[in-house]
Amino acid sequence: MSGMLNGQRIFVTGAAGGIGREVVNGLAAEGAEVIATDVRLAEGTNASLSLICDVTDQASVNAAVAEANAKLGPLTGLAYVTGFNHEATPIAEFAMEMWDKVFDINVKGVVRCANAIVPQLRANGGGSIVTTTSWWSYSGKAYFSAYCASKAALKSLTQSMADELAPNGIRVNNVAPGNMNTSMHTDALESEASKRGITFEEMREIEWAKVPLGIAGPPSAIADCMAFLFSDKASYITGGTFDVNGGVLLRSA
Ligand SMILES: NC(=O)c1ccc[n+]([C@@H]2O[C@H](COP(=O)([O-])OP(=O)(O)OC[C@H]3O[C@@H](n4cnc5c(N)ncnc54)[C@H](O)[C@@H]3O)[C@@H](O)[C@H]2O)c1
């Protein structure tokens, strides 16, 4: 533990997920007080506080932020790790309800969190926000239209926030994971394998062969990148996209 995040109070969404849990523990290990939030309680982490928070519901977000503020003091940061992927779906069969759900969780939730948290950061004289996009934000993929479009939209939203909030001393960046070894990745492999009529193992071999470093990454790699972005070492960095992907973009052009 370096203590590089000492004195920070960081609100993490999606904290019960494969990457979110590692982000909670990684930021706490560097000295931050972490508020772990999710639609289900994130148990067994090193969070200072664990709260239920549904990012599709402004009242739920406001309540969690208010409780964090009352118990620990004003927030200094937001790590938006929440994300939702849909099953592989042909565009001509895409239900609008599913399209809306993907955008509600992956994009609009960030705006709800900004509504609740940015005023606190402004009042503190600054802070840092990190969102979680994807290597699939760079180009669309067959059957994953809504997810890819939502992550491209999130990247643009993150850049707009960076530009707008810079005068308030608030830095805003996004981390773009490649294939990380979590259930979101294995579920996507299973879904794609069944569309193609091949086994899970065959699908995994196809996907991992695209990664120069040869494997789906450890979720802790995302936490390490976020810890850096929340620290003073990143004080001149805003509006950036940070690829944590084992080099996968080099083989997917
Ligand atoms: N795992 C990967 O390979 C990978 C690759 C690229 C990008 N990502 C992105 O990384 C982030 C984390 O992915 P993960 O693998 O940990 O996924 P995950 O499915 O394990 O975790 C996502 C979490 O978000 C929570 N969540 C869903 N809806 C919510 C809501 N309405 N309100 C609050 N929380 C809600 C879920 O309960 C879950 O705990 C996501 O944004 C994802 O899109 C993951």
What does this 3D model show about the protein?
The protein has 253 residues and is of the alpha/beta class. It has 2 domains: 9-178 and 218-239, 3-Layer(aba) Sandwich (Rossmann fold); 181-216, no CATH class. The chain is 44% helix and 15% strand. The chain has 7 helices and 7 strands; from the N terminus they run E-H-E-E-H-E-H-E-H-E-H-H-H-E. It has helices at 18-29, 58-72, 96-124, 145-165, 183-196, 200-208, 220-230, and strands at residues 9-13, 33-38, 49-52, 77-80, 127-132, 170-177, 241-244. A 7-stranded parallel sheet has the order 3-2-1-4-5-6-7, sandwiched between helices. Strand 4 (77-80), helix 3 (96-124) and strand 5 (127-132) form a beta-alpha-beta unit. Helix 2 runs parallel beside helix 3. The longest helix is centred in the middle third of the chain and has 29 residues, at 96-124. It is globular. The mean pLDDT is 96. The protein binds nicotinamide-adenine-dinucleotide (NAD). Residues 13-14, 16-20, 38-40, 53-56, 81-84, 105, 132, 134, 177, 179-180, 182-185 line the site of nicotinamide-adenine-dinucleotide (NAD). Pfam families: adh_short_C2 (PF13561). InterPro entries: NAD(P)-bd_dom_sf, Sc_DH/Rdtase_CS, SDR_fam. Keywords: Oxidoreductase. Belongs to the short-chain dehydrogenases/reductases (SDR) family. GO terms for molecular function: oxidoreductase activity.
